[in-house]
């Protein structure tokens, strides 16, 4: 535990949460969390369980969602679960209808659902679906979700939190073309519309995570034993984002990483054979 705390500190700095401030911020509010059946989304639900708020948990796996709901409801939060694959148009439309039917509206959206793929382009020649499915969940789904809920968030002066990746701020790398392109697409779109949303009272927050220990990284063998931010550390950073209202939250060392990635990419581009 102590070693993981040190890793979390090195990856993102202090992740401790001011629970009193968070409790005041969330009192009576409705919070939507996508990708809530495991990983960061489920852990975030557990972190918010102590507070008097209404959690709306969305994911594809209904049984896993039900497990999270049972654990959370042992404490103070009220929970609704909604099984939906946000890439599926009818299921997305059902979710949006449900959100618009909430009597007290919606206060916070945590857009956490996502898909990562690591694959060589030479293993992808007959896998165009890798591109379409990553774009569907990492870009199109959060765009559609935000477009529909802007009136709800504006009415309650709410917040949209984009759970992003440091990859969107670094130079592109091999094997992650589909993932990096799809995450970057929404990151740019979200930052483009944020000034308009902010002017109408909607808080926009982008959180740029490094590698996080979640089930999503399990298929990549090289990541299994690498140091990574814990899912609890990631969830606590999101909690802090709910009361700090920063536009961006990112690791303290990311500026140096950006400089190094640009230099290495430029060096490779300069030295490659033509």
TrEMBL record:
InterPro entries: NAD(P)-bd_dom_sf (IPR036291), SDR_fam (IPR002347). The keyword Oxidoreductase applies. Keywords: Membrane, Oxidoreductase, Transmembrane, Transmembrane helix. The keyword Transmembrane applies. The chain crosses the membrane at residues 252-268. GO terms for cellular component: membrane. Gene3D superfamilies: NAD(P)-binding Rossmann-like Domain. GO terms for molecular function: oxidoreductase activity. It comes from the Bacteria. Belongs to the short-chain dehydrogenases/reductases (SDR) family. This is Short-subunit dehydrogenase. The lineage of its organism: Bacteria, Bacillati, Bacillota, Bacilli, Bacillales.
């Amino acid at each position: 535990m102590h070693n993981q705390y040190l890793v979390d500190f090195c990856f993102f700095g202090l992740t401790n949460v001011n629970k009193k401030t968070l409790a005041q911020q969330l009192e009576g509010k409705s919070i939507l969390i996508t990708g809530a059946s495991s990983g960061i989304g489920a852990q975030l639900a557990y972190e918010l369980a102590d507070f008097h708020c209404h959690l709306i948990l969305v994911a594809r796996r209904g049984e896993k969602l039900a497990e999270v709901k049972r654990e959370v409801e042992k404490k103070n939060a009220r929970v609704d679960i909604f099984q939906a694959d946000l890439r599926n148009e009818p299921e997305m439309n059902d979710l949006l209808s449900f959100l618009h039917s909430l009597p007290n509206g919606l206060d916070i959206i945590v857009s956490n659902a996502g898909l990562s793929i690591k694959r060589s382009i030479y293993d992808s020649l007959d896998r165009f679906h890798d591109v379409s499915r990553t774009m569907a969940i990492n870009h199109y789904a959060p765009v559609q979700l935000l477009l529909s809920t802007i009136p709800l968030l504006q009415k309650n002066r709410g917040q949209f939190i984009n759970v992003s990746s440091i990859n969107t701020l670094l130079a592109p790398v091999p094997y992650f073309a589909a993932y990096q392109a799809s995450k970057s697409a929404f990151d740019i779109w979200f930052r483009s519309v944020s000034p308009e949303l902010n002017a109408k009272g909607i808080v926009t927050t982008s959180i740029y995570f490094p590698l996080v220990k979640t089930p999503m990284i399990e298929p990549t063998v090289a990541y299994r034993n690498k140091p990574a931010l814990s899912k609890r550390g990631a969830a606590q950073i999101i909690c802090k984002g709910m009361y700090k209202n920063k536009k961006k939250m990112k690791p303290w060392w990311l500026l140096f990483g950006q400089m190094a990635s640009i230099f290495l990419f430029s060096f490779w581009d300069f030295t490659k054979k033509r």
